[in-house]
Amino acid sequence: MKKIIFVFFLVAATSIVAEAQCPMCKASVESGIEGGDANAKGKGLNDGILYLLATPYLAIAVVGGAWYYKRKQVQ
């Protein structure tokens, strides 16, 4: 168990810093800054990221809820 914890902390301590945006998203937001409507493009980009983030969690919640209620009816 100590080895697993040691490896976990070693991996966490040596993680590589990653860029938060893909190059196309970054270019789109940077081009919007020059045009003056960076807030609109940034808001749209953030909404898209939240949509993509929420979709798998909602799918898991629906499957989990269906499984829970079906299991509850059997008992």
Which residues form runs of ≥5 with pLDDT under 50?
A: none
- Mean pLDDT value: 77
Radius of gyration: 21 Å
Helix content: over 70%
Number of helices: 3
Beta strand count: 0
Strand content: under 5%
List its traits.
flat, 0% strand, single chain, 75 residues
Structure report:
α2 (23-35) crosses α3 (38-74). The protein is 83% helix and 0% strand. The mean pLDDT is 77. It has 75 residues and is an all-alpha fold.
What's the short story on this structure?
The chain is mainly α. Helices cover 83% and strands 0% of the residues.
Topology record:
Elements: H1 2-13, H2 23-35, H3 38-74
